[in-house]
C-alpha cells in the first residue's frame, strides 16, 4: 500500500511539473511572440487578477470563507507601490512633493509619505501590511466564530469603507487616485522592453503563487483546512483550533492580493478607489466561482477568462458586460456549482453511472410500498406475473 501511495504521489508530482513547464512556455515564449505590446500588457493585468484569485481559491474554495473584500488587501499593496513610485519620480525631478500634490496645492509632504521614499521600506510594507491587516481582522473575526454570511458582509463592508476613506484623502489623490508614473525602480515605464519585463515579473509571480497554493493544498494543513470547511466542530473536538487554521488561509490570500496590487500599479499606470471597492472585490469572486473554486487552476483560469471576456465584450458592447457577468454568475451558481472546472468530472460521472447500470435502457419498475431493493426490470416483472397466473 505504501508503495502504491508513493507511486500515486510521484505520478501527481510529475503531472504537476509538466503542467508548470507548459504554463511557463506559454507565458514566457508563446505570449510575447504572438501578442502585441498592448495585448501583452493587458494579459499582465489579467495575471494580477489571477494571483488574487489563487488566494481566494485557497480561502474560499478550500476553507469555505466567502471573502468579499479582497479589494482591501489588493488596494493596500497597490497604493503602497504607487506612493513609492510617486516619491521616486519626485526625487528624480528634484521636487519636494509629487506633482499631483503641487497641483492640489499641497506644499509639504505628509508624514506618512516619508518612509516610502525608500525602495526597501516600500517593498517590506507591501509584503507585511496586507498580511498584518488580515491577521488582525481574522483574529477578531474567527476567534469569535463569525462565519458564513456574517463574515462575507463584514469583509465587504471593509472594502466599501476603505474606498470611501481613500476617496476623501486628497493626500492620496482623492477619487482620481494616483497615476502618471514615469519609472519602476529606475526603469522607464515608457520603454516597451521594460513593460515586457513587467509582464515576465507578473507571470513568474503567478507561477510561484500557484506552486505555493498547490503545496498548501497537498499538505497536512490543506487537509485540516478542508476538514474545517466541512466539519468544523469535529476538528475542534480533535483538539485543533479551527480559528487558527482559517486565519492562516486568510492571511495567505491577503498576502497574495497585496503582491498582485503592487504589480497592478505599474502595469496599468493608475490606482484609484474605483479599483479596490466593493465592485472589484465581487468581480474577483465571480472569476473564481466561474472557474471552479475548489480546484487549483480553476480560480486562475476563471479570473483570466472573465477578465478577457470583459475586455472583449466591452469593446463591442460597452454597457452590456455587467448584465452578461451577472447572467454568467447566476448560471454557474445555479447549475454548475463546481464551476467550469467541474463540467468534465460531472459529465464523466453521468456517463460512468449510465454504464454502471449495465448499459441497458430497460426501465426499472418499483412495486407500490416495496423497498428499493425489490425493484425489478419491467420485462422480468411481466414474466413473473405470467408464471403466477398459470
From TrEMBL:
Mode of membrane association: Multi-pass membrane protein
This protein's record includes keyword Cell membrane: yes
Protein location: Cell membrane
InterPro entries (UniProt xref): ABC_transp_permease (IPR001851), ABC_transptr_urea_perm_UrtC (IPR017778), LivM-like (IPR043428)
CDD domains (alphabetical): TM_PBP1_LivM_like
GO molecular function, one term: branched-chain amino acid transmembrane transporter activity
Transmembrane segment boundaries: 12-35, 42-60, 66-85, 121-142, 148-166, 197-217, 247-271, 283-309, 321-347
A single GO cellular-component term on record: plasma membrane
Keywords annotated in UniProt: Cell membrane, Membrane, Transmembrane, Transmembrane helix
One Pfam family here: BPD_transp_2
Chain residue ranges for the region called Disordered: 370-390
Top-level taxon of origin: Bacteria
PANTHER family assigned to the protein according to its UniProt record, in alphabetical order: HIGH-AFFINITY BRANCHED-CHAIN AMINO ACID TRANSPORT SYSTEM PERMEASE, SLR1201 PROTEIN
Protein name: Urea ABC transporter membrane protein
Organism this protein belongs to: Nocardia bhagyanarayanae
Top-level taxonomy: Bacteria, Bacillati, Actinomycetota, Actinomycetes, Mycobacteriales
Amino acid at each position: 500500500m505504501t508503495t502504491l501511495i508513493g507511486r500515486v504521489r510521484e505520478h501527481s508530482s510529475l503531472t504537476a511539473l509538466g503542467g508548470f513547464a507548459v504554463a511557463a512556455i506559454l507565458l514566457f515564449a508563446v505570449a510575447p511572440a504572438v501578442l502585441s505590446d498592448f495585448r501583452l500588457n493587458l494579459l499582465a493585468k489579467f495575471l494580477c487578477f489571477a494571483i488574487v484569485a489563487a488566494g481566494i481559491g485557497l480561502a474560499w474554495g478550500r476553507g469555505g470563507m466567502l471573502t468579499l473584500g479582497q479589494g482591501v488587501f489588493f488596494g493596500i499593496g497597490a497604493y503602497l507601490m504607487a506612493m513609492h513610485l510617486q516619491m521616486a519620480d519626485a526625487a528624480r525631478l528634484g521636487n519636494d512633493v509629487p506633482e499631483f500634490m503641487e497641483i492640489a496645492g499641497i506644499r509639504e509632504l505628509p508624514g506618512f509619505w516619508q518612509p516610502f521614499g525608500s525602495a526597501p521600506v516600500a517593498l517590506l510594507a507591501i509584503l507585511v501590511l496586507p498580511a498584518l491587516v488580515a491577521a488582525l481582522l481574522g483574529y477578531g473575526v474567527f476567534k469569535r466564530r463569525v462565519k458564513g454570511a456574517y463574515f462575507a458582509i463584514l469583509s465587504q463592508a471593509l472594502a466599501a469603507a476603505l474606498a470611501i476613506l481613500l476617496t476623501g484623502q486628497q493626500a492620496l489623490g482623492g477619487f482620481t487616485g494616483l497615476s502618471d508614473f514615469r519609472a519602476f525602480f529606475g526603469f522607464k515605464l515608457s520603454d516597451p522592453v521594460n513593460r515586457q519585463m513587467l509582464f515576465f515579473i507578473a507571470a513568474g509571480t503567478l507561477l510561484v503563487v500557484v506552486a505555493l497554493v498547490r503545496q498548501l493544498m497537498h499538505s497536512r494543513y490543506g487537509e485540516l483546512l478542508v476538514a474545517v470547511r466541512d466539519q468544523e466542530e469535529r476538528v475542534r473536538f480533535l483538539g485543533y483550533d479551527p480559528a487558527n487554521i482559517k486565519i492562516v488561509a486568510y492571511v495567505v490570500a491577503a498576502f497574495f492580493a497585496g503582491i498582485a496590487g503592487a504589480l497592478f500599479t505599474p502595469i496599468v499606470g493608475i490606482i484609484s478607489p474605483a479599483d479596490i471597492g466593493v465592485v472589484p472585490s465581487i468581480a474577483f469572486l465571480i472569476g473564481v466561482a466561474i472557474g471552479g473554486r475548489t480546484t487549483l487552476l480553476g480560480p486562475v483560469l476563471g479570473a483570466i477568462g472573465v477578465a478577457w471576456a470583459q475586455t472583449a465584450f466591452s469593446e463591442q458592447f460597452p454597457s452590456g458586460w455587467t448584465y452578461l457577468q451577472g447572467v454568467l454568475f447566476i448560471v454557474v451558481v445555479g447549475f454548475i456549482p463546481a464551476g467550469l472546472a467541474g463540467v468534465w468530472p460531472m459529465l464523466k460521472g453521468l456517463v460512468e453511472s449510465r454504464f454502471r447500470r449495465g448499459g441497458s435502457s430497460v426501465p426499472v419498475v418499483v412495486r407500490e410500498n416495496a423497498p428499493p431493493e425489490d425493484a425489478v426490470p419491467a420485462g422480468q416483472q411481466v414474466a413473473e406475473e405470467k408464471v403466477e397466473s398459470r
